[in-house]
Amino acid sequence: EAIRRSKEPDAMFTRFWCRKESFLKAIGAGLRLPLASFDISGDTPHVAHEGATYAFYEHCEASLFFCVCAAADHLADDIPPPIIRL
């Protein structure tokens, strides 16, 4: 629904896909965990899984989107933006 309502649906889809992919990688599930089984929408999403809470660090620059997911107690608040060179 958020993608449909977005003024930039392609960018919103990319953002949500990166969140889902980074979460699946963080828990080591790959695509064995159905994508519809967890919610990553919202401005500051958190996902609970097997007793742990996972949080996201995101950086968007131009058309590039970078997302890291980690257990919330392992993700520092002061991670600097990534350096992206093309």
Task: Explain this structure.
With 86 residues, this protein is an alpha+beta fold. It contains two helices and three strands. The chain has helices at 2-5, 9-27, and strands at 46-49, 52-61, 64-71. 13% of the residues are buried.
Topology:
Layout: H1 2-5, H2 9-27, E1 46-49, E2 52-61, E3 64-71
Antiparallel strand pairs: 1-2, 2-3
Beta-strand content estimate:
25-35%
- By oligomeric state, this entry counts as single chain
Helix content: 25-40%
The whole-angstrom Rg is: 13 Å
Unreliable runs, pLDDT <50, ≥5 residues?
A: none
Instruction: Give the spatial strand order of the biggest sheet.
Output: 1-2-3
How many strands, what sense, and barrel or not for the largest sheet? 3 strands, antiparallel
Return the string of H and E elements.
HHEEE
Rounded to the nearest angstrom, the distance between the terminal CA atoms is: 33 Å
| pLDDT averaged over residues | 81
Q: How does the helix and strand content classify structurally?
A: alpha+beta
Describe the global form. globular
What is the count of DSSP helices, taking H or I runs of 4+ residues?
Answer: 2
How many runs of DSSP E, i.e. beta strands?
3
Quick overview:
The chain is of the alpha+beta class. It is about 25% helix and about 25% strand. The chain has a three-stranded antiparallel β-sheet with strand order 1-2-3.
Characteristics:
alpha+beta; 3 strands; globular
